[in-house]
Amino acid sequence: MAILKSKPGVDRKQLLRYAWMVLGILALAPPFGFLAQAFGSSTICGNLCIRMAIGSSFVRELFSRTWGVILLFLWLGTTLFFGRWFCSHFCPVGALTEFGSKLLPPRLKIDYARAVNTPLFRYGFLGAYLILPMVGFANICCSYCNFSTVPEFFGAFFKPEMWLMVFTGYRMVSVLLFVFVLGIIATDGRGHCHLLCPVGAVDSIFNILGARLPFTFRERIDLSKCGGCGICEKECPAAAITVDKQAAEIARIDYRRCYQCRICEGKCARKAISIRRL
Ligand code: SF4
Ligand code: SF4
Asked: Domain limits of the chain?
């Protein structure tokens, strides 16, 4: 079997993405949360919550948390035209657990993207998320939220008095689930993004829709350059790439899964992958 080797050297696009992720944390998570503070909160959970507007509470949220709804539309609009930039570059929830996962050696991690049918799980969860509040389970949806849990856990490092709250009752279950089991232990630290984030699920739908339009930008593979080596398929943390030398399209990206992290770009020795129009 051929040994797959990725392109060596520093990946400047990943360094730039990490810089954006740090900015997202500084803007929307403790201890600074400068953007959240400008809107009267300390994290993305609160006055800037973009999650609650998804579903039957949309009209209420439009009037009570208008800036959160505006941020949601900005998020989804950016995805439609430019791909999932907010999720991969700016969301502090995914960024915190992705950085946290780098503390753990790869052999101790779980590759959820390959172990689970993530699109099926993600859209199944979105369906439950939309339906449960209609039958009286709104509080459960709100309690088990990655947008509130992950920044709150991170914030406890700066406010020790919060530790008791973070490790009490349902909050402890959320911390175990989102920060550890589906966060730090996940291969890319984003198991909760791939499986249990309602914003991520809706965002991926906008990603699929936009990918079909000729004027939108997406991570795309130039098949005239691709040699079918399979490196990108192996390295994609979302298992979004399929390489099959026998197929008419030897390498393709599944936009239900791709969150535009750009890792594949840096791994392709033939520079066949880039963000571009159709
Ligand atoms: S795009 Fe083609 S050449 Fe580049 S890493 Fe993927 S399979 Fe290999
Ligand atoms: S296809 Fe590329 S940009 Fe999309 S998730 Fe996979 S590695 Fe990231």
From this structure: 12-210, 218-276
